[in-house]
Structure formats: C-alpha cells, structure tokens
Design brief:
With 71 residues, this protein is mainly α. 92% of the residues lie in helices and 0% in strands.
Length: 71
C-alpha cells in the first residue's frame, strides 16, 4: 500500500468509527429507557450467545462492505 492509499484507508476507518458513535449516540438520545433495558438484558445473556451474535454481525458487516465496494 502506498502512503496515499494508507491515508485513504485510515480516513475511511475514522469515518466508519465516527458514524458508529453517531448512530449509537442518536439511539441513546432517542430511547434512553430502552437502551437501559437492552444493556441489562445483555448482562443476562450467556457469553457464548454474545460471541455468536458478534461473529454474525461482523460477517454481515464485511459482506455489506464487500458489496458496496464492488459497485
């Protein structure tokens, strides 16, 4: 990767992280009580289930990125 390509990837990464934080912030601002209930339910969820959900979400995210990048 050339330096310009590296900077472009880092810019994309920062934009993605900022978007994730923005979406999370909006959800907490609009539904604070619902988010509290959700967090409490996560605490009661077995780690194996959380791991599977996390892997599914990660794979889905990679697939979406690959589809968007291919067009």
């Amino acid at each position: 990767i050339q330096l310009g390509g590296y900077l472009s990837v880092m810019k994309d990464l920062l934009i993605a992280l900022a978007l994730a934080v923005t979406i999370e912030g909006v959800i907490f601002a609009l539904f604070p009580a619902g988010m509290k209930r959700y967090i409490l339910s996560v605490l009661d969820t077995p780690e194996s289930t959380l791991r599977i959900i996390g892997l599914i979400a990660a794979v889905a995210g990679v697939i979406v990125i690959a589809i968007v990048r291919s067009n």
